[in-house]
Amino acid sequence: MRKDGTYVDYRAKSIVEEVELTVSQLEAADGAAEGSPLPSHTHLINQSFVEINKPKKGRIYGLGSAQDKDVSPNKTLHLAHNLDMDMRLSSLETNVEAVKADMAMLKEDVMLLKDDMKVVKECAASMKASTHVILRGIGIDPITHKWITPSRARAMVSESVPASTPLQPQNNNNEE
Question: Could you say which of 36, 57, 59, 82 has the lowest number of CB atoms within 10 Å?
């Protein structure tokens, strides 16, 4: 594309339009699916450009000399390889973010489970205490699960149950 915003030729214009259409369709499909997160917008543009504009004789149309990057005097890496590596890195970064979000949710769930377990322990302790009172009330030792002798049973029951107060007749008369 030139500085004034016009395309160099028809082929360049058709490639740009096709890439833009492909990217918008991918993003729209991801918005509707809500599945795995889609790579970044730049990553989608690069990926679509390389898929649509297939290399011919090891060169990609529209990139000119920018597709060659000298690493050493003997080796030249092609931009397609660099784009592939960038896409993989972007995909990994997206996956790491998704894993971090999942871990945060998992951590929250574990904290809720811990709180619930505290409540269960408290309920179990109160049920145990209630069971001990009931067993003593029917004459069974809650520790050994053996019958308590009658003299001992009365003493234990009287210790656990408060003594009743004698009933007094009520005076319904207002005479005092």
Answer: 57
